[in-house]
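Lecture notes, unit on protein representations.

Consider one protein chain, 151 amino acids long.
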Amino acid sequence: MNRQMDQKGVVAGLFFLVFGLAIAVGAASYPFKADTGIGPGFFPSMVGIALAITGIVQIGAAMGPGATPTRFDRRPLKPILFTTGGVVVFALLLKPGGLILALPALFLCLALAQSSFSWRRLVGVSLVLLPSAWVIFVAFLGMPIRFLPDF
C-alpha cells in the first residue's frame, strides 16, 4: 500500500516528541513531590509529557487518512542555521560585550537569514530595540545585564 503523508507534519511531530521526551527525562532528576506539595520536577515533567503527546498527535494526524501530502523542503536550512547561530553569538557576547554588542550581533545574524538584507533596517531595529531591551530587562525587571562592554 502506497500511503502518502504530510512530511512536514511528521518532522514537526518528531521535533515535539524528541524535545518533550528530553525535557521529561531531564526533569526526572528533580523531586516530583515535596513535603509542602508539588516539587520542582513537577512542572517540567508535565511540560515534557505534554510536548511528547502533542508530537504523537501531530505524527498521527500527518500520517492519517485525511493528511494532505506535502514534502519536506530543505531550502529553509539557511534561516535555521543563521537564527541558531545568532542565539549562540548573543549568548557568547552578552557577558563580555554587554547588550550594546550582543543585540546588534544577534540582529545581524537574523538579518543575514533573510533573503532581503538591508543595513538601514538593521541599524533602525538596533536603535529601537537596544534602549527598549535596557528599559525592560535592566530598569524595570532589575536583571543584572551589562549594557556596555567590560573594559
